């Protein structure tokens, strides 16, 4: 087996069925992988177990098949990965980049809000737990420096982690590993070379790069696609009750996803077959045509 030059992935959280917003991420990551003769892996991101359901996972995988996606390799599930996350956390501990934090959400609640809308951790437990307090969560000690990377769609992105987010959680107070740690360990273990996903995660990327650097794993290339907004200007999500995709009629949604991604598929393909639409997409896909907005309303 030759060395794989390109390995991409789609990493849905089974908190609900796939909707048009997730389809856009699936289509973008898939076409970028396929047109570079790469592999496309699927990972079920169920690390936040209380929000996930097995029936959503089955529905997501069924939808991907109905829409004509071909998945390479084994599907990874975060619920099987606790030991890997624990090893990563141990390593960060060894490097003295982790500290126990006793603060409750309420105690942090008054802090300034960071770039992701969450309070910036004020550093209360950074140099040790206050007397008589026990650790509830474990946090990553961020460096006082900027992280910079070049996103294939959004251009150069710079974030000063300490100013924008502060020391962030790796192991949550409820005993679950945080998404940031899980995603870094998973991308490393699946040898992902290219991450193509929604721009709602642009703000998380510097945290992931800081963890990669600390753990000594490669940083993949990143491309963040515009996020789909509904008529009220909200991101399509399970919370905003985005409609599930129709498994029996993939062509209209696939066509709209391509159009949303700036590919301008011919109108005639809207009433053609699924495979004809994919064929056109394989031949015409261009990441350079994806609009550079962080978000964009859906239109026909
Ligand atoms: N699981 C995340 C989501 O469904 C995606 C995470 C990622 O692509 O890194 O939004």
Provide the list of bound ligands, each named once.
glutamic acid
CATH class call of the domain at 7-80 and 221-297: Alpha Beta
| Estimated share of beta-strand residues | 15-25%
CATH superfamily heading of the domain at 7-80 and 221-297: HUPs
Specify the structural class: alpha/beta
Give the overall average pLDDT.
Answer: 95
Estimate the helix proportion, in percent. Answer: 25-40%
Total DSSP helices:
9
Radius of gyration: 20 Å
CATH topology of the domain at 7-80 and 221-297: Rossmann fold
Strand adjacency order, main sheet: 1-2-3
What do you see in this structure?
It is a single chain. The protein has 300 residues and is α/β, with parallel strands linked by helices. It has a domain of 151 residues: 3-Layer(aba) Sandwich (Rossmann fold), CATH 3.40.50. The protein contains 9 helices and 12 strands. The strands form 5 sheets. The chain has a 3-stranded parallel sheet with strand order 1-2-3, covered by helices on one side. It has a 3-stranded antiparallel sheet with strand order 4-5-8. A two-stranded antiparallel ribbon has the order 6-7. A hairpin with a 3-residue loop joins strand 6 and strand 7. The longest helix is centred in the N-terminal third of the chain and has 16 residues.
């Amino acid at each position: 087996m030759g060395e794989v030059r390109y390995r991409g992935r789609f990493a849905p959280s089974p908190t609900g069925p796939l909707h048009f917003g997730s389809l856009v991420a699936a289509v973008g990551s898939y076409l970028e992988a396929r047109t570079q003769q790469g592999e496309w892996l699927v990972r079920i991101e169920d690390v936040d177990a209380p929000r996930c359901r097995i029936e959503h996972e089955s529905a997501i995988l069924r939808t991907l098949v109905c829409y004509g996606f071909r998945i390479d390799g084994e599907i990874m599930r975060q619920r099987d990965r606790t030991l890997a996350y624990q090893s990563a956390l141990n390593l960060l501990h060894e490097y003295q980049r982790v500290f126990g934090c006793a603060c409750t959400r309420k105690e942090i609640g008054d802090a300034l809000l960071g770039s992701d809308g969450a309070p910036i951790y004020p550093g209360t437990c950074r140099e040790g737990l206050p007397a008589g307090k026990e650790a509830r969560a474990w946090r990553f000690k961020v460096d006082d420096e900027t992280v910079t990377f070049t996103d294939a769609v959004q251009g150069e992105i710079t974030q000063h982690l300490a100013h924008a987010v502060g020391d962030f959680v790796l192991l949550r107070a409820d005993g679950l590993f945080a998404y940031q740690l899980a995603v870094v360990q998973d991308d490393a273990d699946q040898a992902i070379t290219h991450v193509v996903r929604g721009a709602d995660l642009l703000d998380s990327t510097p945290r992931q790069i800081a963890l990669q650097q600390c753990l000594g794993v490669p940083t993949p290339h990143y491309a963040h696609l515009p996020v789909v907004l509904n008529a009220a200007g909200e991101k399509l999500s399970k919370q905003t009750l985005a409609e599930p995709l129709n498994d029996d009629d993939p062509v209209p949604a696939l066509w709209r996803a391509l159009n949303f991604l700036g590919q301008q598929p011919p109108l005639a393909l809207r009433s053609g077959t699924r495979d004809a639409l994919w064929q056109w997409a394989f031949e015409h896909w261009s990441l350079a045509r994806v609009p550079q907005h962080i978000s964009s309303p859906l239109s026909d």
